[in-house]
Design brief:
The complex is a heterodimer of chains A (314) and B (547).
Chain A (H helix, E strand, L loop, with lengths): L1 H28 L4 H5 L7 H10 L6 H15 L11 H36 L4 H15 L2 H20 L17 H27 L2 H8 L4 H30 L2 H6 L5 H11 L2 H29 L7
Helix pairs in contact in A: 1-13, 5-6, 5-8, 5-10, 5-13, 6-8, 7-8, 8-10, 9-10, 10-13, 12-13
Chain B lengths: L4 H32 L7 E5 L14 H10 L4 E3 L5 E3 L2 E6 L4 E6 L13 H12 L17 H4 L15 E5 L2 E5 L7 H4 L21 H5 L7 E3 L10 E6 L13 E6 L3 H9 L5 E2 L4 H11 L3 E13 L11 H9 L3 H8 L4 E3 L23 H11 L4 E7 L5 H15 L2 E7 L2 H9 L6 E6 L11 H4 L3 H4 L9 H12 L3 H18 L2 E13 L3 E2 L15 E2 L1
Parallel strand pairs in B: 1-10, 14-15, 14-16
Antiparallel strand pairs in B: 2-3, 4-5, 5-7, 6-7, 8-9, 9-10, 11-17, 12-16, 12-17, 13-17, 18-19
Helix pairs in contact in B: 9-11, 16-17
Classes of the chains: A mainly alpha (314), B alpha+beta (547).
Chain lengths: 314, 547
Amino acid sequence: MGRYIIRRLLQSIPVLLGATLLIFAIVFALPGDPIAALAGEKRADPNIVAILREQYHLNDPLLLQYWHYISGVLFRFDFGVTFAQVPVSQIMAGKFQVTLNLAVTALLIEAFIGVGLGLWAALRRGKATDTMILASTLLLISVPTLVSGFILQFILGVKLKQWTGLDIFPIAGISNGLRSYLLPGFVLAGVSIAYLTRLTRTSLAETLRADFIRTATAKGLSRRRVVGRHALRNALIPLITFLGADLGNLMGGAVITERIFNLPGIGLQLFDSVYLREQPVVVGIVTILVLIYILANLVVDVMYAVLDPRIRYE
Amino acid sequence: MRVTKGAQIVAGTALLALAVAACGGGASDNGGTAAGGGSAETPVRMELGEPQELLVPSNTTESEGSETLAALFEPLVNYDENKNAVEAAAESITSDDQKVWTIKLKSGYTWHNGEPLIAQNYVDAWNYAANQENAQSAGYFFGRVDGFADLNPGEGKPVTTKTMKGLEAVDDTTLKVTLTAPFSQFKVMLGYTAFYPLPKAAFGPDGKVTQAYGEQPIGQGMFKMDKPYKKGTDQTIDMTVYDKYPGTKPKNWTKLQFKLYTDSDVAFNDLQANNLDIHDSLSPAAISTAKSTLGERYQDQPDAGVGYIGVPLKYNPELNKVDVRKAISMAIDRKTIAETVFSGTRAPADDFINPAIAGYRQGACKACTYNPAEAKKLYEAAGGPKTLELGYNADGGHKEWMEAVANNLRSNLGIEAQAKPFEKFASILDELDAKTYKGLFRMGWAIDYPSAENYLSPIFSTGAIQTGSNYGGYSNKKFDDLIAQGDQAATVEEGLKFYQQADDILNEELPYIPVYFYRNNSGYSTSVKNVKINLLNQIEWADVEKA
């Protein structure tokens, strides 16, 4: 097991290097001069542009620029600075924390609600409850985050406070601790809740028809034990795969939610930095996102072994 | 069912680590903000976008950073309700020949670290700003000071001196500034961010302004920063009234908090829920709600910005005919664009000088009146081009009104007019230079200092083709002469007469086509009253009261 994990981690090194070079090259290829664009709509002073281009090594060829960057990261653990001279590591530390909080909140919400609803639907297959749950997931899938975010913010943030004086769901920012993440977490989880509900329902329904369930029931086990201990455990495998992969999606794809709720996370930062062509920030964030995908996949693979003893990695 | 022990441990650890990582951050966020509002007093909360740079006056040319710095610094002059510059940190600003200026400082001002404010602080700050090696974005403001050229020898050339010869601290309270040529509006410029002084403590051992200073600037103004602002991480900038500030302080409050938003509409939601007190940049989408829900607390006032259709005169000879430009101008329905496309957040333009500034004359631009029939006749007579492209930068919300203008031109002039998006404004200029684009383009102007001269010389003078914002390449000898006469006039008011004559030439020749004047749309909560916004779009903090 240990050797397997170490091998997987070693394999990720070339993946990471390749990803950084690729992202670096893509940002490099974007049109326009990022320094000149800093002056907004006034023409930047050519002297100053020249000095700043020199300072950020923007006149060097691509590979040399990449070397400046990657050697700083590898040998000095220096992720570079933004165009405002703020260290990228400082920005990433703060922003990843926000997005991680948001993504984990969303993941917990979708796991509880999604799996819960899916179980309920699977056990009441074909009945009114089942139909109702399926219909409501359809609604969740079809309403875009942008719409649900603004509507929930307005109703639960603005109107609820105006009507009742209760300040339960903060509208914007992270100044209310973990409470700040409840509403954005739910909005972000929305679509995934729907998928997870459907996945759980199908997976469990299929497992419940399997031979070993009939055997378990035949040998006189209680319904609770049959479903909880035998069926659910087997049905969980595809769900774990989904949740593992979804953590990466939630972290990288939270731009809209972060904007609506004014959360200073990496989604927004990535958006701004691509726009400003701040290579060190873009590459830094994407590299860590790649790392998170790799680790999440590793955890998913290990979880398989936990859930299904037939799977062994050696 | 057996599970391998190893796998169980690994999986358990991973889940635990994730949960701890997430919770850990939550707790520390909580601690961080509790410190900001530590005292019993709730601050006055003001909406802000993220400043582009660290908070250094000489490197701040955008609105959000300027707004923050304005609370921390006292400028040499302020602007009163009659649009005139009045002394603030300066006792007097005088000149006999408009070339050598003597600035006497008021006594009583100290830096937030206790140092007294002296004339040398201005000399240090201005020399630092103008030196090309420091790459300060507001360096160009000092272009009129004698010795600016020595600090800016050009690309790749070393700077051999550290000071401008036109700057001199005669004694601790007297500053002498010599300009290369007379400039009657010099006093009006001095209220801008670039002219703030810097304390000794701002400079590091290498003579550069330190990173730490940019995070927590020490000013000499009404407010003092509570803690460093970590750009990119912090969502608030917290300040407290400075005890030893000699000017008028706010009546019944002492704490000010800037809250950073990425989306104006989200801030408006926060305002409605009373989580925010002042919002000075309401979006067109929020206007109708703001009018009905805020009532008296919604304000609408002129803002000094102007929006134009730029004409590339030097790139496109077809457009280098006055009648063609007049026809285009008369074919634009400014009123409908201002009221419908912008929901009233703009006003139709009828001069090159904005109504917020002294010198504006209503209806000065005759060809700015909507007259489609006359426009079509004139356009055909002058032989205007059959197709026109209207370039705009797609990153700034300009699509709708440029489409509307294109629509006007299509139906009123009977030509093929098409709005064309560019990535950024700089891309339009690049393509004009490269001669791959020669159509009309969108152009906006926000003033650097509130003088009529600022609407004319930086955009339309011959000198500004090289060094300024004269992107169309307009050049008119008579116009340049009138500007020079205005610059040499004995007083601000006398200068204005010449500038207005120069403005007449623009209104006649239309090098650009003015389309709208900006307006400032703001709102405030029930917890504050008497909110006033000055010419530079900054709140007059001393007037604000807690309700």
